[in-house]
Amino acid sequence: MANVTLKNVVKKYDTKTIINNISLEVKDKEFLVLVGSSGCGKSTILRMIAGLEDITSGEIYIDDKCVNNVHPKDRDIAFVFQSYALYPHMSVYENIAFPLKMRNFKKDEIDKKVKEAAEILNLSEYLDRKPKQLSGGQRQRVALGRAIVRNPKVFLMDEPLSNLDAKLRVQMRSEIKKLHEKLQTTFIYVTHDQTEALTMGDRIVVLDKGVIQQADKPEEIYYNPSNTFVGGFLGSPSMNFINVKINGGLINFNDYSIALTETQKQIIKDRQQVVVGIRPEKMDVSNPNYAFNAQVDISEMLGSEKIVYFNINDSKCSAKIDAQKQFGKEIELNFNTNDFLFFDADSGMRIS
């Protein structure tokens, strides 16, 4: 088992900076998720930890040992790729056994490890099959099995579920979490899927343009985002951001004046304009202190709830409401101003 530490890591391609001076510590046995939009640098970080990408500057430590000049095969990590990377001509057994054969393990030890991994992943009855005879989820489990048998210090996973359908992704999310709990090994998991990040990670690192925007527990990231990027990236629909002017301790939502609390006034201080952030599920709560009517642009039915879209101060907003709530072209929304978060209108940073 091992911790992983990045110290002032920079990665450049020619003059373009992909990773910009990142420092990060992944604790022993932690399940850390790197999340961000395409091109933010999350897969590059994973490949640098694995040794598949050179770093431009900085240091990477695995189990407190600097691995900058250590060959990938000697870093004691296992990498699970998005594409499964299985050998099509080999059986499931042979695919799982391959890394052990390459390290000259004895035949009986290989057999024991392969069958143990297959049992953990419910693959015992498929050991004689070829990859083409398996479903996407089964192939991904084979890729996981090939990683498990090595008993590595660190598992690195690069969007391993992105090729699966929605239902299978949900199933595999829980299987990977159970696997982490069973193995008690350090997992570093890359995804662009915010739901995967929120449901799987002990801690989430949100990246944008090669810079860490926030690193914290899922609930902290969700309810206390450090800036508008984080608040807008995580959550479906994303957090509402409403540009408001402040006048005499009042802000305006369309034609409605809303009074700030004394605590909120102290947070905002002498600012005359801020961005108010509020989650869609907080726009129709059971303990409101304000209510206002909004013109409905469109609504979407999602089983037990509806998503309603509307405008506030020319900002596009949404609310999650009970599916049984009735409304026409106009809807009454109830909210509590204690659910407001405030962000600087220029920088987008959280005001606290």
Q: Look at the structure and give the CATH class of the largest domain.
A: Alpha Beta
Structural class label:
alpha+beta
Shape: elongated
CATH topology of the largest domain: Rossmann fold
The count of β-strands is: 20
Order of helices and strands: EEEHEEEHHHEHEHEEHHEEEHEEEEEEE
What does this structure look like?
The chain has 2 domains: 4-232, 3-Layer(aba) Sandwich (Rossmann fold); 239-344, OB fold (Dihydrolipoamide Acetyltransferase, E2P). With 352 residues, the protein is of the alpha+beta class. The chain is elongated and about 75 Å long. Strands 6-7-8-3-9-10 form a 6-stranded mixed sheet, sandwiched between helices. It has a 5-stranded antiparallel sheet with strand order 13-12-11-14-20. It has a 4-stranded antiparallel sheet with strand order 2-1-4-5, with helices on one face. The mean pLDDT is 92. It is built from 9 helices and 20 strands. Helix content is 26%, strand content 34%.
Write the layout of secondary structure elements.
Elements: E1 4-13, E2 16-26, E3 31-35, H1 42-50, E4 57-62, E5 65-66, E6 77-80, H2 92-102, H3 107-120, H4 136-148, E7 154-158, H5 166-183, E8 186-191, H6 194-200, E9 203-208, E10 211-216, H7 218-223, H8 228-233, E11 240-247, E12 250-253, E13 256-259, H9 262-268, E14 273-278, E15 290-295, E16 298-302, E17 305-312, E18 315-322, E19 330-335, E20 341-344
Parallel strand pairs: 3-8, 3-9, 6-7, 7-8
Antiparallel strand pairs: 1-2, 1-4, 4-5, 9-10, 11-12, 11-14, 12-13, 14-20, 15-19, 16-17, 17-18
Helix pairs in contact: 2-3, 2-4
